[in-house]
Amino acid sequence: AQSVAQPEDQVNVAEGNPLTVKCTYSVSGNPYLFWYVQYPNRGLQFLLKYITGDNLVKGSYGFEAEFNKSQTSFHLKKPSALVSDSALYFCAVRAPRSGYALNFGKGTSLLVTP
Amino acid sequence: SAVISQKPSRDICQRGTSLTIQCQVDSQVTMMFWYRQQPGQSLTLIATANQGSEATYESGFVIDKFPISRPNLTFSTLTVSNMSPEDSSIYLCSVGDYEQFFGPGTRLTVL
Q1: Are A8 and A24 in contact (CB under 8 A)?
Q2: In this prediction, what percent of chain A has a pLDDT beyond 70?
Q3: Under a CB-based contact definition with an 8 Å cutoff, are residues B103 and B35 in contact?
Q4: Cα angle B51-B55-B59, degrees, rounded to a multiple of 5
Q5: What residue numbers bound the domain in which A27 lies?
Q6: Following DSSP, what letter does each residue of A44-85 receive, concatenated?
Q7: Which residues are within 8 A (CB) of A88 and not within 5 positions of it... i.e. 6 or more apart?
Q8: Domains detected in chain B
Q9: CATH of the domain at A61
Q10: What confidence tens digit (pLDDT) does each residue in A51-104 have?
Q11: What pLDDT is stored for residue A98 in this prediction?
């Protein structure tokens, strides 16, 4: 069975500071990993994915994530947070040959204060 | 990326009734999924709907409660049957394989 864990319910960051939203995964084989963002009363928006290749993945809105196989982690990062980044962030995983449906983490609420 | 629309965007329903949610995609897609997001919770997969075959339901979800249609490659419906307050959730459809794109969701409140 595949799963992801987001250990933090909420992350608070001051605008301009770097942000990290943590995600660890458990999957048999090489994982396919994803980050999505959900703004209030909006659907999920795709940020980035890791399938294979470089461990550092760059995505939308200046976000990036680093795949770390030894630590089974896929933390989301941004060098300089914006107030508009405040939203709910979901990490998701799909195991190869398991179908295309995603298993989502419980979500981390990011609050960026001015 | 695909553009996905859902109807209705929100609804308030009485217990015991049924609601059909529509998902329309602007391009032909093979894989389509229905998820549920209960208040304050993460997304849970209800079923996978491929055109030309019966939907595949996840554990805890049954066809009698959540019948799904997939008549063509751009459209699907999810019906929430015999609703109870526990069915109050956001229901989202998504499409894609390596990248999944989500519709805006249908916010359902059952009284």
Answers
A1: no
A2: 96
A3: no
A4: 155
A5: 3-113
A6: EEEEEEESSS-SEEE-GGG-EEEEETTTTEEEEEESS--GGG
A7: A37, A38, A39, A107, A108, A109, A110
A8: 18-101 (2.60.40.10)
A9: 2.60.40.10
A10: 888 899 999 999 999 999 999 999 999 999 999 999 999 999 987 666 778 899
A11: 63
Q: Which residues of A touch B (CB under 8 A)?
A: 32, 34, 36, 41-46, 49, 51, 90, 99-107
Structural domain count, chain A: 1
Q: Alpha-carbon distance A39 to A84, whole Å?
A: 10
User: A12: how many CB neighbours lie within 10 A of its CB?
Assistant: 12
Q: Name the token pair of A55.
A: 């461990």
Tell me, letter by letter, the H, E, C secondary structure of B4-54: EEEECCEEEECCCCCEEEEEEECCCCCEEEEEEECCCCCEEEEEEEECCCC
Residue B98: list chain A partners with CB under 8 A: 32, 49, 51, 100
The confidence score (pLDDT) of residue A31 equals 87
Rounded to a whole number of angstroms, the distance from the CA of B88 to the nearest CA of chain A is: 15
Q: Are A37 and A89 in contact (CB under 8 A)?
A: yes
CB contact under 8 A, B42 and A104: yes
The Cα A19–Cα A42 span in angstroms is: 22
pLDDT tens for B72-99 read 999 999 999 999 999 999 999 999 877 8
